[in-house]
Amino acid sequence: MVAAWLVTVLLLAGAVLDGFFGDGKGAVLMGLATVAIGAFAVHWTVVRPRLAVDEHGLVARTLGGTHHLPWAHTRTHLRTTRRLGRDGVTLELEHGDELYIFGRTDLGEDPRDVLDVLTVLRSRL
Hints:
The chain is α+β, with helices and mostly antiparallel strands.
């Protein structure tokens, strides 16, 4: 998250400098890159933490708001996909017709470890 903010600031500085000293075309491209990376930085800042646990169940945060998912009505499982020779693991939460997908970046930990912790917490509550 800090890296995204740092890249956003550097791109903004590059866009401003190119606007003053360059031909302007590079400033437009750097400005677009600044907006794109800045949007990711805002998303990662606003929607943290993405997944939390309370006494009633799981709490998932998205751009649409905070969603409370009771243990009894929520299924958790892992999905592994293989792309470009690498395995990607995501944690999927199913609650009724809604599906929440969390990757390593969203959770800050390996989804397998998070599922293990959720399984232990579910058995205790």
